[in-house]
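Human: Cast an eye over this sequence-structure pair and say how the chain folds.
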Amino acid sequence: MKALVFLAFVSLATMLPAQTQSAPDQPKSLGEVARDSKKEKKEPAKIVLSDETEQQHKAVIPDVFYGGVDNTDEILKAIDDYHSTHNLQETEAVVHIWFDKHDAMLLNAIEENRRIEQRERDRSLGYTPASDAQPRSTQEYQEMQRVELISRREDLKHKQENGLLSARIQQAFGKVRAQVKTKYGMNVEWFKIRCGNGNCSF
């Protein structure tokens, strides 16, 4: 019996080195993987900003001013300066970007004024969105009148601002369209000017 126990102990002792040697072949734990990844971590790439990079993000052609002095001459000069160092195709591309931006602004101003004019017609006919809600007291009636007066003033203000913006954009569009067509020979079939108030004829 003692001999059998001794043989079993010897057999177990001879197997342990083999298991120890196979340990490196086992998969690494999550902690070991994390430590290894930190060792091999590289520095993040750095973005170098230069004057040329910043210049690419600036608008080539300035926006139309509608709250102050007319800046159409500045816009025409910016296009002329750009065309002096770029070909016709490149010039047309930047003019198209400028046009699309201001055409969207013009469309928004025209449509908003149409909505305001519709509200004015509704008021003249005695219709208001809250006509079903009748005032229950003199104080409530006065409050409704005050809110209605503020609404009319805001509509009038926005209508005037939209009208000025529309006129300025239409004026700038007319001058820019004429310059790029006659001076540079640009095809301006895409350069359509919206007319929401009868002030343009393109």
Summary: Confidence is low (pLDDT under 50) at residues 2-10, 12-24, 41-54. The CA atoms of residues 51 and 57 lie 10 Å apart.
